[in-house]
Amino acid sequence: MIRSATGSSGYSKFAYRAVIGKVVIGVATLTMLVPLLGWSAEYEAVLDWNRKSKLSTPVSGVVANVSVRPGDRVAQGDILLQLDNSVIKANLEKSKADVQHYERLYKEAERELERNKELYDRTVLSDHELELAHIAFTQATAQLKSAQAQMEKMAFDLRHSEITAPFNGIVVARNVNEGETIVSSETAPVLIEVAEADVMVAGFQVSGGQLGKFKMGEKATVAVGGNQYKGEVSAVGFEPVAKSGNRYLINVRFDTKSRLLRAGRSAKVIVP
Q: Which of 19, 85, 121, 199 is a plausible cystine mate for 161, CB 3.0–4.6 Å?
């Protein structure tokens, strides 16, 4: 006669063990999930450019051409603005001619000095005459250096009579039109602003006590208008944000996947 293996509650020992096993497995699974859920956090953020350049020129002149408008995409090296450089080119040619002229004078003064030194060594030339040769050589050297410096300045002005894109980007501001006169004194005016294309940052603030949760290069997700982008922490603030008290800025850099996003737009950052 076979006896049933049951406990006092009426369950068989085998059924009881099966229930306990499911509970144990369930608890273990939950224990594994809780840390993952606990580390995930969501922050309200604002988009900003990863890199932006405010372009100007140290050269004064009249704007001859502005070839871009806000929203235009540009490649590194593209010409964005040109000044009327006709006077600069003329001055550069004149300075080149001056350099050639003073080079001839310098070489002649150098040869004359060497001849006078030989004559002086043979006691044919007086101290005064040798000194005059030294003075002439020094003067020719100074004139040549001055002409070379002027030529370099004209070449510099010619190079900077146009503004080119420093990197692949988007034109976000244009502050000048054709025909306007640019006067570059101690502070050159900002003429064009270019932001880096296809890379942006989502910035948000955290308290000083939360800074330890963030590390450079840490993976994060940026959500904007129903789209999500993979990114990484690119900046962890060392100083409080102005007028924010004990709040520090965290930036998450991400690739926009060639979508046109704008600075100042709201976003969410999910940090696992």
A: 85
